[in-house]
Amino acid sequence: xxxxxxxxxxxxxxxxxxxxxxxxxxxxxxxxDFSALPLSPAGAAPRPAVEAAPRxxxxxxxxxxxxxxxxxxxxxxxxxxxxxxHLRRGLQAMILTRAFDDRMHRAHRQGKTSFYMKCTGxxxxxxxxxxxxxxxxxxxxxxxxxxxxxxRGYPLATMMNQIYSNASDPILGRQLPIMYSSKEFGFFTISxxxxxxxxxxxxxxxxxxxxxxxxxxxxxxxxxxxxxxxxHNALTFAAVYRAPVILNIVNNQWAIxxxxxxxxxxxxxxxxxxxxxxxxxxxxxxxxxxxxTAATQWAEQxxxxxxxxxxxxxxxxxxxxxxxxxxxxxYRPADEFDNFPLGDxxxxxxxxxxxxxxxxxxxxxxxxADAVEQVRAAGREAEAVGTLGQSRPSVKTMFEDxxxxxxxxxxxxxxxxxx
Amino acid sequence: MPSLNMxxxxxxAIDTAMSADPNVLSFGQDTGYFGGVFRVTxxxxxxxxxxxxxxxxxxxxxxxxxxxxxxxxxxxxxxxxQFADYIYPGYDQLVSEAAKIRYRxxxxxxxxxxxxxxxxxxxxxxxxxxxxxxxxFTHIAGLKTxxxxxxxxxxxxxxxxxxxxxxxxxxxxxxxxxxxxxxxxDRPVRPWAGHELAEVPExxxxxxxxxxxTMRQGADLTVLAYGTMVWVxxxxxxxxxxxxxxxxxxxxxxxxxxxIVASVKKTGRCVVVHEAPRTSGYGAELSAxxxxxxxxxxxAPIQRVTGWDTPYPHAQEWDYFPGPKRVAEAMxxxxxx
Lengths: 419, 337
Hints:
A: alpha/beta; 33% helix; B: alpha/beta; Rossmann fold; 12 helices; globular
């Protein structure tokens, strides 16, 4: 052609390009297939010294740190050797979290609130971490770390007041249900914009280091949101400034209906994303309470020793729907969780404690009954204030806390409403 | 009292804040050792140390987000976005996070950050070094947006911004960093030296956010302007031979509505001037406020003089930039109406 280009009909032998769209291993009606999920036997992954150079941890981005084996025994170098009391408290907090989730999910079905999100199957991650870190450390959670509050003894009725947006909601009905906030419990206000909290946690950790403090931060993000720029900014800043922060990636396989492969999960592990930033990287069985504890302790000790941030991928599975607005039967095999190779974190810790002779069926039944009763009592307390629509913070509060001080526009608008 | 240009005044403000409060720190692209591309943070690292004035990765969202995290911890970070044209990657963190954290947490967590950013045209910066995105921030509940027009206000307002308990967008009109450029681009530019508003006290003082400054008293009409346009408007009043009352808003949010209403009720005519494109620019808000509150005092339609609704050009800069001729024409129209 006059411009020097070759028209398509004159390039018949050129291979045709094709666009690749990743697809999950199974859709509704298919058999669950986790063969693409890299696993390691319990006890197999080596445990580097806390002072190890980041590059000496990078193999662990492709392993899977596991402590509990198939029979519920704790094995290998990552065994945190926790005392039975710690384990029992962890199990009880997980049982309580699941009972709370079940109750609030039902409350939504009963029209008592507009929205709810369960963390079923992921309880070990938030709870084991909350028990390693202190309340003075700051967690920057997503919407599936309610276990942090529950493990720390935050009042269940206050959580429900938030879920019901009632007159006793500590955040005055301003947020979607489950977007808790508690400075006192080291729980940063949850954002519905995914990933934004991740680099904020790095900034908080930088501030702690700047002040010569001893507190650290822990941030959470899902597999899907690692695709956000905020994730990459967080890793860059954390690495560059050696921020004392634990950068947790909760890989629960699904981002609403989108499988983890759409965030690049099939191409490498999520832990491996930390390698390019020069950060230490651990890939951990997120349904193994002991492994979560051990990895968190390792990262915590590094952070407190001025060795900076650690990226931890917790491999888990979102057993419930994304939220009450979701129906997973439309997009994934129905029995995936039953076939998930890492099992159920509550069942696994229960089996371990039972094997130690520190737990039995009667104690399990008592713990479950106690959890249901605690939730029921909290429910009575919260519902006495009111469920969604029965009770709400005053309209006047809608006009407060936009700024620290007075703003004439907001004052006039409040007067326009007549409150 | 020393005569400082705006860069020196801003530098003095950050230095003063850092000296007074160990929780104040400064970071941004090239702002550490080098002291910033416009030199605003020059010498701060040497004086206050590496951890209090340092360089940041080229990631505006990361700069804003880490500043938010620091503020949540209890610090008062003052960060620089090298050009306002680069602020957009940080927009989500400002709009979805900094602006809303106090509200959504019931007042439990707060984000007292100051985001300094040079903005505006007149420097042959083309599309990526000339924009005026202030109205993208004035629209957001929870943010404050301010624009100084001279060295005295620059220092006093920056100190007020850093001390403020809310996030403040601090737009620095870079065309007037070195002198009160009045839009006559083919005439020599006066430096700040010797100007009464370049007399900047060495110590701490604040110019409260939310108070306008009447730059010129007048009876014929009211001009509402900020940043470089304050000086352009003063030149335009001379050009048009109009006894204009020129109000430097200084702060867009919070806005000094009382000063605006008092002046327009006095003059009965109003011209709004800004560099940003017209559609949904801050001038639209100003026009609406003036007609809502001064309608029965208005003797002519409100005039808007703004940048055009095009991207900011390079070769055609002086056809885009609202110079004194265009402002003077608007003043004449306002007087005829």
